[in-house]
Design goal:
alpha+beta; 4 helices; 7-stranded antiparallel sheet
């Protein structure tokens, strides 16, 4: 298994980003967009999606250069569980097929990454950046891509929760909560 170690300088820094799930949105929802809201932070833009009552998925937008930006989901140290990829990843193929696709780089434009010197892992999705900054690039297309991305993250969590390839992986899902 290979991780993108953020060889493109300063693509993102995960430490300041909230984890994938939270019970607090951190921003107010607008009546015109009742399931998604935006929170501008010092070093990123959060897209906050209402998943269920009191459950929110937080993804982050950061510039990636070359007219692109990344939608980033902070998975904390969850992927530290993979100590023996040759044995562990094949066991995911049947029980967690969506996770297996992520771990084998089978998604188009979605990667598992860990920045050098950072302890947290991110799942990242490249999208076009049409404005000069990510905030000005949030279009309906970006929101739709983010919705699909969040659904993939939820699918992975559901697979791990209901049919984990290793029991400790289910327990470590707590790593995804802010």
């Amino acid at each position: 298994m290979q991780f993108d170690t953020a060889s493109q300088n300063q693509i993102y820094q995960v430490k300041s980003m909230r984890r994938l799930f939270s019970n607090k949105p951190g921003a107010t929802f607008n009546e015109n967009l009742p399931t998604t809201t935006i929170n501008v932070r010092k070093d990123c833009v959060e897209l906050i999606s209402k998943v269920d009552s009191g459950v929110y998925a937080i993804t982050n937008l950061k510039s990636a250069g070359n007219g692109q930006m990344r939608i980033i989901a902070n998975w904390g140290r969850f992927f530290d569980l993979i100590q023996n990829p040759e044995v562990q990843i094949p066991r995911c193929k049947i029980s967690c097929p969506t996770l297996y696709r992520l771990l084998t780089n089978s998604f188009e434009n979605i990667i598992l990454a860990k920045k050098n010197g950072d302890s947290d892992y991110s799942v990242c999705r490249l999208v076009p950046m049409t404005g000069v900054i990510p905030l000005l690039s949030i279009t309906k297309e970006v929101l739709d891509i983010n919705k699909d991305f969040v659904n993939i993250m939820i699918d992975i969590c559901n697979e791990l929760s209901h049919n984990p390839p290793f029991p400790v992986w289910k327990d470590k899902l707590e790593e995804l909560w802010s």
